[in-house]
Amino acid sequence: MKVVKRTILAIAVTVAVCVLLVVVVINRPESGDEPAVPEPVRPKVTIDDGSSWPMFRGGQSLSGRASGTLPDELTVVWKFKTNDSIKSSPAIVDGLVFIGSSDENIYAIDLESGQKVWAYKTTDAVEAAPCVVGETVFVGSLDGFLYALDAGNGSLKWKYETDGQIPGAANWTLSPDGQQLWILVGSYDNMLHCVDSTNGNILWTYETDNYINGSPAVDDRKAAFGGCDAMIHVVSLTDGSKVAEIDSGSYIAASAAFLDGQVYIGNYDNVFMKADVAAGKVVWEYKGSDAPFFSSPAVGESVVVFGGRDERVHCVGRDDGKVVWTFQALGEVDSSPVICGDKVVVGSEDGRLYVIRLSDGSKVWSYEIGQPITSSPAVARGMVVVGCDDGYVYAFGSKR
Q1: Domain assignment of residue 164, yes or no
Q2: Would the pTM count as exceeding 0.85?
Q3: What are the pLDDT digits (tens) for 74-122?
Q4: What domain count does the chain have?
Q5: For 13, left (φ over 0), alpha (ψ -120 to 50), or beta?
Q6: Within-domain flag for 83
Q7: Of 236, 153, 228, 157, nearest to 198 (Cα)?
Q8: pLDDT > 50? residue 237
Q9: Among 179, 180, 215, 216, CA closest to 195
């Protein structure tokens, strides 16, 4: 009986081995084929096709240029009321307008109708412009937190605490291996912070000697920004190490534009300048104002346009810094202009939104709201959206 059992067991084992060999042969890759490796999931970013304005100044370099064109005459399409003044500048992505208010809220508004989609309340005024990457809105508050919100419903994903106010917009970069999204933001704790976009965990910080009021500009794996320590700082995005430190002569409240290794920025000592990162020095200075510059520049193909507290909009040559034209407003221009085709759009503390001809600085159109406009316009889908000190968000477009 034992012999029979052993025979049956041996037959069963033999059959099992044969079946296993057949399965292996069937599923073995053909000669020369490698086992399939899953493709890495790259962070989703918004493509600039003229339908969006995903962050302050429109893109990572903070160049202030919009795709498409604008008509010679605009009309108010809608306005949306918040409960306090608006210093924040809007972002526009997927048919939604995102903007902060001094009423401590971050709002999402339907671009077509002007109706509120959602609101998220922080614990202090929100003067920073939102930065929208993929399905997340990143925005700082004067309460010292950087918030990551779901773009669709406004729910909180995470928040990251700094030791000071965050008045400037966040920016983004990809990790060195291109697989993660990193978020950059400056704070009144004198630090530039780099955090992981998925969880808000800190990756690195870069310390300066005074407040960081503006937004960092990103180009060629570097970030450039001005500080209230009067320095133009250029930092490696890989690890936050110093690349260059260029003395501007006076403290800097505005954000820089950073393109092709060149930094364009104005300071509190009435000087606007272009600095070369590789050379580590200022290339040219423009001193055509008797008042400070708080406006961030728009960089065109051959010109740079920026506002001044001398109540003028200035246009200078990109190569030499020589004046091309100036436009006289009736109030200080802290709003940052946007170049769209042959036009420049900018707000002023005289309560007006202006459209100016890029070629000669002549006025094309203006609209009087009546309260100061320090918010900077966003331009997308042929529309202009801007906030105002009267607590409203205004959307302008072609006459319907």
Answers
A1: yes
A2: yes
A3: 999 999 999 999 999 999 999 999 999 999 999 999 999 999 999 999 9
A4: 1
A5: alpha
A6: no
A7: 157
A8: yes
A9: 180
